[in-house]
Specification:
six-stranded mixed β-sheet; alpha/beta; 6 helices; 30% helix
């Protein structure tokens, strides 16, 4: 059963020398997996899900840390610990138990997912996955050792595959690394150049990708949203409109 796979994954200890952020727990997903009709997929959780800019554990917290359970990095979580971690992931966008989403990343998604497709993290119709469920320090893009990245991917991609066994209407792939890693298993057969205008009227070109998986439409792009698209409503609106119009 999928719940057994989820609990097994969450219980894992933090392996040493793998750039996994200390004292954290795996983020199996963000949001209401059971009710979601769409999903977004990115690289891995930010360490800001657990720590503030000064390097202190967030209070109020977004998610459980190992400290909350009195566990060291080299200790596995218990089943009851893992159930609490899963429940915090389920309720990440709700007011309870924590209610402190990382809006800098999720809100720019939610605005346009809701506008163009009527999906929303906050309404429980969209859930977010990552290819790797651990937060890393340094961030993924600054990890220089490819062997570490490959080991983390090899460990966690089967879990993502299990989660994608649920039927979704649309699967959104965020960024070239995600598209390139998942292109074969998500049956991406078409790539095209797509253009959108920024707030100043300048043209920006990116590569869009289309596929089909388990009855879901797959849409991907090679930019890493939201950080690779200018922080203004017009640019981001035009970016998402270009994605919606990919057929």
């Amino acid at each position: 059963m999928i719940i057994d796979r989820i609990i097994e994954r969450i219980k894992r200890k933090i392996e040493p020398n793998m750039c996994i952020t200390s004292r954290t727990t795996p983020v199996i997903y963000f949001g209401n997996y059971e009710e979601a009709r769409a999903c977004t997929i990115s690289l891995n959780p930010s360490d800001r899900e657990f720590y503030d800019a000064g390097g202190k554990l967030l209070r109020p917290a977004r998610l459980y840390s190992r400290e909350d359970f009195g566990k060291r990095d080299d200790e596995e979580l218990t089943e009851s610990d893992a159930i609490k971690v899963k429940e915090a992931c389920d309720n990440y966008f709700n007011k309870e138990p924590y209610g402190n989403p990382y809006g800098k990343f999720f809100d720019p998604f939610d605005i346009f997912l809701n506008k163009f497709w009527k999906y929303s993290y906050y309404h429980g119709t969209c859930v977010h996955f990552d290819m790797v469920q651990w937060a890393t320090t340094p961030p993924w893009g600054r990890i220089r050792q490819d062997d570490i990245k490959n080991k983390l991917l090899d460990s966690d991609l089967p879990v993502l595959g299990c989660l994608l066994g649920k039927k979704f209407e649309v699967i959104f792939l965020n960024g070239s690394k995600v598209v390139n890693t998942l292109s074969k298993c998500l049956n991406i057969k078409e790539s095209k150049q797509v253009m959108f205008k920024d707030v100043k009227g300048n043209n920006h070109v990116f590569t869009g990708h289309l596929g089909k998986y388990n009855e879901a439409v797959v849409k991907g792009w090679d930019l890493f949203y939201p950080y690779d698209v200018e922080d203004d409503h017009i640019s981001r609106n035009n970016f998402w409109e270009a994605i919606k119009n990919m057929i």
